[in-house]
């Protein structure tokens, strides 16, 4: 969810300002590579309607070769690896970076030694002078190591005791003293790949990025990125760091564990990790993409009005960075359901019917005909017309949150119950109630007025009252025969739709 929200805010900002939204895959960390993740990102954004103007999935295909329409291809950083080394070496030549030859074992020893003294090891302006790098080794040894070894890196030479002044579109003016920062690795000879810091700066410059909107976990890296732009002499983009999405209960960042515990998804689509562990997705849980996007947009941004429902086009017009909040946004799973319920109610009965048909088919109900065909049903054959389905949707959509709820709410409008709630039958299937219900059956089967829901309802109530039978007990007795339990839709709504013949068959259980 957090990643999609970041992409959404970038998309809205770009569209509002007449810019382009670029999808770049940052896959230079081979240790964190996850098979299938790239396609998952592409599919998730497409489901949400966040379509890149340029990038890996532009035009619905992977773009690998630069063209007039896609001038900055390729868009996977792993395919751009030949670009970064010269920029790393440029920084060394200018004195802003240096070669580091420290082995993993040597760095581990340095950390252990610092810990033994109650300190924390930091590779910085102090410790680098005691370590094995191009700042401390003779030039001829540096040259030899560069040619004969492959375990060296390029590190940024963080200045000592300088103040880096930065501006964030959300957080305002920020000052950081460089003495508190370490010398980050920028490029690794072992795999000839850059780290995030160098790759992003270089690619943002080459791809002419003007704004970078990302998560607040990257805020500590902002001073380094400012200094890198300064070192290269490049105009830097504007930065904005979004607040975290917070768990609904307690404090802290929203996580998959919170979703598993409280029963809601945290992924846009169902995800199966390399270990085979499955995580629920909003799409598979029945959320509309428009509802999901609308909900995400409001997690950390406020339009300044009472309006809560926004189309993507409306979001583009209304979105502004100055209304993005600094504090973390607490996620409310019930509010997510509310959004889906609102979007469901806004959809046409025809659209909802088409969405409901696959659910019916999964439950053994055949749907025939079209919206222009007559309303019909054959309960014995488990077959109904599309217009019959539409009449059911019209009746129940105000009660539902998801399309899948339609079946749970009104399955008995498509087939007769095979089981009956024991608690309800014990309460209402009394001899006197059953006798009255049988007479009601005859009344309905001989009903000669116009066959409408209102006529059936008024006729039923008048008939029961005229015989002085207890309304609730008799009606619940009938309801159990029709639906299998003492709860559900109104009796007249059910009878009107299933018709006299099916009503009579179901009442035979009494």
Task: Describe the protein in words.
It is built from 19 helices and 17 strands. 31% of the residues are buried. 43% of the residues lie in helices and 11% in strands. Strands 3-4-7-8 form a four-stranded antiparallel sheet. The chain has four domains: 81-237, Alpha-Beta Complex (Glutamyl-tRNA Synthetase, domain 3), CATH 3.90.800; 246-343, Glutamyl-trna Synthetase, Domain 2 (Glutamyl-tRNA Synthetase, domain 2, Orthogonal Bundle); 347-413, no CATH class; 422-507, Arc Repressor Mutant, subunit A. The model has no long low-confidence stretch (mean pLDDT 95). With 510 residues, it is of the alpha/beta class.
Question: What is the count of helical runs?
Answer: 19
Strand content: 5-15%
**And the CATH topology of the largest domain?**
Glutamyl-tRNA Synthetase, domain 3
Write down the overall mean pLDDT. Answer: 95
CATH homologous superfamily name of the largest domain?
Glutamyl-tRNA Synthetase, Domain 3
Give the % helix: 40-55%
Largest sheet: 4 strands, antiparallel
Identify the strand order in the major beta sheet: 3-4-7-8
CATH architecture heading of the largest domain: Alpha-Beta Complex
Kindly give the count of domains: 4
- Cα-based radius of gyration, to the nearest Å: 33 Å
Uncertain stretches of 5 or more adjacent residues = none
CATH class of the largest domain: Alpha Beta
The chain-level structural class is alpha/beta
Amino- and carboxy-terminal Cα gap? 52 Å
Number of strands: 17
Shape: elongated
């Amino acid at each position: 969810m957090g990643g999609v929200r970041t992409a959404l805010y970038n998309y809205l900002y770009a569209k509002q300002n007449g810019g382009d939204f670029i999808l770049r895959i940052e896959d230079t960390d081979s240790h964190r590579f996850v098979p299938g993740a790239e396609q998952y990102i592409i599919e998730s954004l497409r489901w949400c309607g966040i379509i890149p103007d340029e990038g890996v999935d532009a035009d619905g295909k992977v773009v690998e070769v630069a063209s007039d329409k896609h001038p900055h291809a390729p868009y996977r950083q792993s395919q751009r690896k030949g670009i970064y080394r010269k920029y790393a070496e440029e920084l060394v030549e200018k004195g802003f970076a240096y070669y580091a030859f420290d082995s993993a074992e040597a760095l581990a020893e340095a950390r252990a030694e610092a810990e033994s003294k109650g300190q924390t090891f930091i590779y910085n302006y102090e410790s680098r002078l005691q370590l094995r790098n191009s700042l401390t080794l003779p030039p001829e040894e540096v040259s030899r190591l560069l040619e004969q070894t492959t375990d060296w890196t390029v590190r940024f030479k963080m200045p000592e005791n300088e103040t880096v002044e930065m501006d964030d579109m959300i957080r305002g003016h920020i000052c950081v003293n460089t003495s508190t920062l370490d010398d980050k690795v920028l490029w690794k000879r072992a795999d000839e790949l850059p780290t995030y810091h160098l790759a992003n700066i270089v690619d943002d410059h080459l791809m002419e990025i003007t704004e970078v909107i990302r998560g607040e976990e990257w805020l500590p890296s902002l001073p380094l990125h400012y200094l890198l732009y300064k070192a290269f002499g490049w105009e830097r983009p504007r930065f904005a760091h979004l607040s975290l999405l917070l768990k609904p209960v307690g404090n802290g960042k929203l996580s998959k564990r919170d979703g598993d515990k409280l029963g809601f998804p945290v992924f846009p689509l169902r995800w199966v990790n390399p270990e085979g562990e499955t995580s629920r997705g909003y799409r598979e849980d029945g959320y509309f993409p428009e509802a999901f996007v609308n909900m995400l947009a409001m997690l950390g941004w406020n339009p300044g009005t009472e309006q809560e429902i926004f189309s993507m086009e409306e979001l583009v017009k209304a979105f502004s960075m100055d209304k993005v909040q600094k504090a973390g946004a607490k996620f409310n799973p019930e509010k997510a359901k509310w959004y889906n319920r609102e979007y469901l109610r806004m959809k046409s009965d025809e659209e909802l019917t088409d969405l409901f048909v696959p659910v019916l088919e999964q439950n053994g109900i055949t749907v025939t005909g079209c919206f222009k065909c007559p309303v019909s049903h054959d309960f014995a054959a488990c077959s109904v017309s599309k217009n019959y389905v539409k009449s059911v949707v019209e009746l129940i959509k105000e009660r539902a949150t998801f399309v899948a709820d339609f079946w749970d709410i009104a399955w008995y409008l498509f087939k007769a119950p095979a089981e009956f709630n024991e608690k309800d039958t014990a309460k209402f299937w009394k001899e006197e109630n059953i006798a009255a219900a049988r007479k009601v059956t005859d009344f309905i089967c001989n009903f000669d007025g116009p066959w409408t829901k209102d006529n059936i309802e008024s006729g039923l109530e008048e008939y029961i009252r005229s015989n002085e039978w207890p309304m609730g007990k008799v009606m619940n007795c009938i309801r159990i025969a029709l639906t299998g339990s003492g709860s559900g839709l109104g009796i007249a709504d059910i009878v009107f739709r299933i018709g006299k013949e099916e009503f009579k068959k179901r009442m035979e259980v009494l």
